Amino acid sequence: MSEKSTLVVSKIKHGTVIDHIPAGKAMNILSVLGIRGEKGDRIAIIMNVESEKLGKKDIIKIEGKWLEPRDFDVISLIAPSATVNIVENFEVVKKYKVSLPDRVEGLLKCPNMTCITNERNESIKTKFKVLSRDPLKLQCEYCGTIIYKDDIVKLTNYLKK
Ligand SMILES: [Zn+2]
User: How far, in Å, from the CA of 106 to the mean position of ligand 1?
Assistant: First the structure.
């Protein structure tokens, strides 16, 4: 086994491996998941490694962390190609492929400041309809504002649960 592949396959004991992330997007994924390492999470970030499917890819390994359904939706917005592996006792026990839902609710902030979802006194969950998956294009169901792939990271209001 070459040194390169050793880097990729080195195992975690219990936790989550997010694989097949487009190259360079690992940090964005951690950011939108609200994982910063401050709470002592053990995280391995492997960037720009060879991938048969993607050419190059990123991988994130998080010891002792399991994802919630909304985490999968968030990941699908940034890395539609991602797979999520659940590891127990050094073995992959479950494998999921993320998939972008037709409607993205409560995960993205509308960039239109006059949108009703941005009214301070209203607690309306944002709703975006997926108009196109590749390239990613979503539309606010309240004001019609369209957002694109490159806007996604800065519009994730995921942390404001
Ligand atoms: Zn809006």
Answer: 12
Q: Which tens digits make up the pLDDT trace of 95-130?
A: 999 999 999 999 899 999 999 999 988 789 999 999
Q: Is 37 within the bounds of a domain?
A: yes
Domain annotation covers residue 160:
no
- Considering the domain architecture, whether residues 41 and 72 belong to the same structural domain is answered as yes
Across all residues in the chain, what is the average pLDDT? 87
Asked if 37 and 31 count as a contact pair (C-beta separation under 8 A), the reply is no
Which domain range does residue 139 map to?
A: 103-155
What is the number of structural domains in the chain? 2
What's the CA gap between 79 and 81, in Å, rounded?
5
Ligand 1 center to 148 CA (angstroms): 14
For the annotated binding site for Zn(2+), the residues are 110, 115, 140, 143
Q: How far is the CA of 34 from the centre of ligand 1 (A)?
A: 23
Q: Which residue has the higher pLDDT, 54 or 81?
A: 81
* Residue 161: per-residue pLDDT: 44
Is position 66 within any domain?
A: yes
* Domain presence at residue 67: yes
- 55 and 75 in a single domain? The answer is yes
- pLDDT at residue 17 above 50? yes
Residue ranges with strand state E in the chain: 15-22, 42-51, 55-63, 83-88, 91-97, 103-105, 127-133, 136-140, 146-148
Annotated binding site: 110, 115, 140, 143
